[in-house]
Specification:
This is Thiamine-phosphate synthase. It is an enzyme of class 2 (transferase). It comes from Alkalihalobacterium chitinilyticum. InterPro entries: Aldolase_TIM, ThiamineP_synth_sf, ThiamineP_synth_TenI, TMP_synthase. By secondary structure, this protein is α/β, with parallel strands linked by helices. It has a single domain, classed as Aldolase class I (TIM Barrel, Alpha-Beta Barrel). Helix content is 42%, strand content 16%. It contains nine helices and eight strands. It has an eight-stranded parallel beta sheet with strand order 7-6-5-4-3-2-1-8. β3, α3 and β4 form a beta-alpha-beta unit. α1 runs parallel beside α9. The chain is globular, with a radius of gyration of 16 Å. The structure holds 4-methyl-5-hydroxyethylthiazole phosphate (TZP) and magnesium ion (MG).
Length: 210
């Protein structure tokens, strides 16, 4: 897959008065190079409509587009890939559906899950939640930056750190060895989304030579 630095996931509850596409466009203009549509509440029909809009937006800017959970929606809009969790289809089964040319990302919370993701052919893994987060229900306890250090030691596929990452604590995440950062609330809930993304990118570029 095309490498990336700053992964923005949608979280419309954090910008009730602003339009989804506008907010995500600001994230892209600020340097976010991968976007995920994550919608755990609306119907598939509504998710599909949003996915179509975000596919158009990301295509315009040449940014990678991932759909969370809905493999059928991802295929219908020709997204670049899907992101799934530990309770979703096994990677091998998802691969049969999406084929070799789509990206499959998997959330992991422990090194055993990361090893299994790599073995099963995930293209990247999410590593988290690093810190406490209110953006995910039923979330496991924070894995801390210790888990990043384990993944750096052992895992060869790309990983992105997620969960409670803010401008004020991202340095700890980068120092632990993460090269790719993902956030929801800090980015999409910001007054100036573009500026927050620019500041994340600056910090990533300072610490990391990809
Ligand atoms: N997976 C692990 S933590 C998380 C997800 C989707 C939520 C991240 O949101 P935030 O607002 O950046 O903490
Ligand atoms: Mg899922």
């Amino acid at each position: 897959m095309k490498d990336f630095k700053l992964y923005t996931i949608t979280g419309e509850e954090f910008h009730p008065n602003r339009d989804l596409v506008t907010v995500m466009e600001q994230a892209i203009l600020g340097g976010s190079d991968i976007i995920q549509l994550r919608d755990k509440t609306n119907s598939k029909k509504v998710v599909f409509e949003k996915a179509k809009q975000l596919r158009e937006l990301t295509k315009k800017y040449g940014v990678t587009f991932i759909v969370n959970d809905h493999i059928d929606v991802a295929l219908a809009v020709d997204a670049d890939g899907i992101h799934i969790g530990q309770d979703d289809l096994p990677i091998e089964e998802a691969r049969k559906i999406v084929g070799e040319n789509k990206i499959i990302g998997l959330s992991t919370h422990a090194i055993e899950e990361a090893r299994e993701a790599e073995r099963a052919g995930a293209d990247y893994i999410g590593v988290g939640p690093i810190f406490h987060t209110k953006s995910k229900v039923d979330v496991v306890d924070p894995v801390t930056t210790d888990y990043i250090r384990q993944v750096v030691q052992e895992i060869t596929i790309p990983f992105v750190a997620i969960g409670g990452i803010k401008l004020h604590n991202v340095d700890q995440v980068l120092e632990a060895g993460a090269a790719r950062i993902c956030a929801i609330s800090e980015i999409v809930g910001a007054e100036d989304v573009q500026s927050v993304c620019q500041q994340f990118i600056e910090k990533i570029n300072q610490k990391v030579k990809l």
